[in-house]
Each structure stands twice: as C-alpha cells, then as structure tokens.
Amino acid sequence: MAESSGSPHRSLYKPGSPPWKEAFRQGCLERMRNSRERLLNKYRQAGGNMPRRAQNTFLVQEVIQEEWNALQSMEGCPETLTQLEELMDMAVLEEVQQELIDQEQSIISEYEKSLQFDEKCVSIILAEWEANSLICPVCTKSNLRITSGVVMCQCGLYIPSHSPELTEQKLRACLDASVNEHSAHCSHTPEFSVTEGTEEKSSLLMSCLACDTWAVII
Predict the structure, then answer these.
(1) How confident is residue 10, by pLDDT bands cut at 50, 70 and 90?
(2) Number of Cβ atoms within 10 Å of the Cβ of 191
(3) Which residues, 6 or more positions from 67, have their beta carbon under 8 angstroms from its beta carbon?
(4) What is each CA distance from 184 to 77, 177, 181, in whole angstroms?
(5) Is the dihedral of CA 182, 186, 187, 193 positive or negative?
(6) How far apart (Å, rounded) are the C-alpha atoms in residues 101 and 104?
(7) What is the crossing angle of helices 168-183 and 91-129, to 10°?
(8) For residue 139, is pLDDT > 70?
(9) Strand, coil or helix: 175
(10) How far is Cα 136 from Cα 125, in angstroms, rounded to an integer?
(11) DSSP assignment, residue 176?
(12) Cα–Cα nearest to 194, from 164, 151, 163
C-alpha cells in the first residue's frame, strides 16, 4: 500500500534527507515566531503598508540569513555548504521562504485584527460619552455625577473639587480631547484610573501601556 504523500512542505524532509535541512527549516520558523515584535516594528515603520509583492517581505531574508549563520556554527553542518548562495538553488530554500512569508503575513494579519478591535472599543467609549449621561471612564458602566465640582460614581470613584465650575460638559470635553489626542498616535485603548494622593487631591488619569504615555484629565 502506497504511503500518503501528506503535506507538500513535509515532502522535502523525508527520512534519509540530510538532517541539517530540517534543522534549518525548523530554526527559521522558530526564529520568525520569536521575532514578532521586530517584525511589527518594521511594519509600523512602513506606515502599516504590506509589501506590494510577495518577495518584498519585511523580515524573511533576515531570518533566513541569521538562521543560516547559526546553522553553520553547529556540529554536523556540511563543510561544502559554506555559503548561503550554494543553497539558493535547492528546493528546500524555496519551501522555507514560502512558509516564512505565510507566517509573516499571519502575524501581521493577527496584529491588524487586534488594532481593529481596539479602534472599535475606542469608538464605543466615545459614543457612550456622547450620550446624554456621562459614563464613568474608570468602570465604563455607571454614570458620573458632578456636584459643586466633586466627581462621583457608584463604582467608588470620588474626586474632590478641583474647580467649582467643573460640569459634565466640561469633563466630557476634556475626556474627548485626551482620547482623540492619544488615538492620533496610538490605536490601542487607553485606561483610566484615579490617583490616591495624601497631600494632593485625587486626580483622574488616562494611561496606555502600549505606547507608555499618560495624561492628567482633572
């Protein structure tokens, strides 16, 4: 009974093939997985634009070169294969390149989906703030109440008066301006918290771990 051919990628690594080929392939894939942040930095530096052609990748050639250099330093590497160019004509390299291209595009696609989710969250928050009642930015559930400049919420938020003239409309404007300013350079959803100062009055803060920024709202 004939054995199933299985995956076309695995067909190049049948028993009896030089073990360094499979080591090279697995090393490249692992190196790409571990280079996710480096890849996304290159993607962001390119303005979030994918290469127009498949061969114009962000990190594939670097990963292949780095893994090839690492493989050469291992015991058992064929002495005759001293240059990467000697591997260029081998079908194994073409297979590895395509797998890396697919992996690179998968990482970027996952990142883009996360950005879209964060943008949707920001839109929901802004829509809630634009409703008649001002939603608490800390718990995002209950309505804020402002009395004589004191900001309160059922979730426990309590900010003593920084200004007797503070109203819901003024606080909403401050929140909108801060969120929009943050969204201009970072697509992640910021978080809100209240400082618990002993000598100074508590303040409402907006912070973002993704871009490492923070701002005092009131």
Answers:
(1) very low
(2) 14
(3) 24, 27, 28, 31
(4) 50, 11, 5
(5) negative
(6) 5
(7) 170
(8) yes
(9) helix
(10) 10
(11) H
(12) 151
pLDDT band at 153 (very low <50, low <70, confident <90, very high): very high
| The pair of three-digit structure tokens given for residue 26, joined into one six-digit string | 């697995």
What is the Cα 50 distance to its own chain's centre? 16
**Does 7 have pLDDT greater than 80?**
no
Q: What is the pLDDT of residues 166-210, one digit of tens each?
A: 888 888 889 889 998 988 888 888 999 998 765 677 889 999 988
Q: What is the pLDDT of residue 135?
A: 85
C-alpha–C-alpha distance, residues 187 and 202, integer Å: 28
79 has pLDDT over 60: no
Residue where the block lists tokens 């309160």: 152
For residue 81 the two structure tokens come to 């294969």
Inter-residue contact 20 to 77 (CB < 8 Å): yes
3-state secondary structure of 81: coil
Distance from the Cα of residue 92 to its chain's centroid: 31
